[in-house]
Design a protein that fits this description.
With about 350 residues, this protein is mainly alpha-helical. About 45% of the residues lie in helices and about 5% in strands. α1 runs antiparallel to α2 (about 20-35) and α6 packs antiparallel against α8. The protein is globular.
């Protein structure tokens, strides 16, 4: 375990977050416990057995591979081993899939409606505000619970988000609707606690991220939506719909605080339904005569949940401000009917 302790110090020196270090060390310790030799003498067979354990998702196995590859590369670079066993271990292939647990706009609105905006119970109103803020600002749950009162600028509609996953702080815009609810929560429901956190529990202490997970799951079941949404689904849904509305991928990447734009590109993938409707509606040889489309240079459209049930198509024009592309901020636009044959 000597090398594991040294490697932990190396990760700290590389400025990894505590959560990332904890995850990496947990996987390495589990691997060390499963082999009958010191970890620096692990064989190719030991590693392949660990990264191909049955019953685990491909993403989990890929993460194991990544952790081991980085560890053994460190051992090799530091001359602690002569032969790197990872050289002969094939990298697991990850399926290129669409983001999972992404809600439609209709489902997101239905989930937000599980708690009334006129609720007088301070804890229920707090939960409503939490969902609105996560959806509006595309926040991770630990970013949400890390918000402080002095970081909320009601006048300029901004929130200061403390550095978390990639240790980069940022100021993010917040929608007028969410800002109004947040302002009301702070003034009327939060209570005058010395704690600087915006969201507090019944004891006046900073809310735990685990509560956010449980609360959203409870409200999702109450809403009856089909998507098995989690607290992270608000972030995914916000990014997906905002991009479909025509927002720049660079602006959305900044909003999500991604260090690499490739992390944002996954949200640009279209479903087969998107491609089908786009081709039948906009292709010069397929465009239906009974659809009067606005004269836009580049038509941008999206499909909501409840909107599609009525056989209607919603479209959007170019908007400069990225926040105006958000599903909770976008101006009401005329709805176009889809021909019966396309329903």
């Amino acid at each position: 375990m000597k090398y594991l302790r040294e490697y932990r110090g190396y990760l700290i020196a590389c400025n990894f977050t505590e959560a990332t270090i904890k995850t990496k060390m947990y996987k390495l310790q589990r691997f060390a416990e499963r082999i009958d030799r010191d970890i620096q003498f692990a064989t190719v067979d030991d590693i392949i057995k660990y990264i191909s354990e049955p019953g685990l998702k491909k993403v989990s196995l890929y993460n194991r591979y990544s952790v081991l590859k980085a560890f053994y590369q460190w051992l090799e670079d530091d001359d602690k081993i002569i032969i790197n066993p990872m050289v002969k271990v094939p990298m697991p292939k990850l399926p290129k899939a669409l983001p999972t647990k992404v809600m439609t706009k209709g489902e997101a609105n239905k989930l937000l409606a599980t708690i009334s905006e006129y609720e007088t119970n301070p804890y229920k109103f707090r939960d409503l505000v939490i969902m609105h803020v996560m959806y509006s600002c595309s926040l991770r749950r630990f970013e949400l619970v890390g918000l402080d009162i002095d970081g909320f600028d009601r006048e300029n509609l901004t929130l200061y988000v403390h550095p978390c996953k990639n240790k980069v702080a940022r100021i993010t815009p917040i929608a007028e609707k969410a800002a109004g609810l947040l302002d009301r929560y702070i003034k009327e429901f939060r209570g005058n606690y010395p704690e600087k956190a915006i969201f507090v529990n019944y004891a006046g202490k900073r809310l735990d991220k685990g509560y956010v997970t449980i609360m959203v799951r409870k409200q999702r079941k109450k809403s009856g939506i089909r998507t098995k949404a989690t607290s992270h689904s608000f972030r995914k849904t916000s990014a997906t719909i905002t991009l479909k509305n025509g927002a720049s991928i660079f602006a959305v990447s900044k909003l999500l605080n991604h260090s690499n734009i490739s992390s944002t590109e996954i949200y640009t993938k279209l479903t087969p339904k998107d491609v089908f409707h786009m081709h039948r509606t906009y292709h010069p040889r397929e465009r239906q005569k009974n659809i009067e489309l606005p004269k836009l240079e580049i038509p941008k459209f999206m499909y909501g949940g409840d909107e599609m049930k009525g056989g209607r198509l919603e479209y959007d024009a170019d908007i400069l401000d990225v926040l105006k592309y958000h599903p909770r901020e976008k101006d009401e636009l005329p709805l176009l009917k889809i021909p019966e044959k396309l329903k």
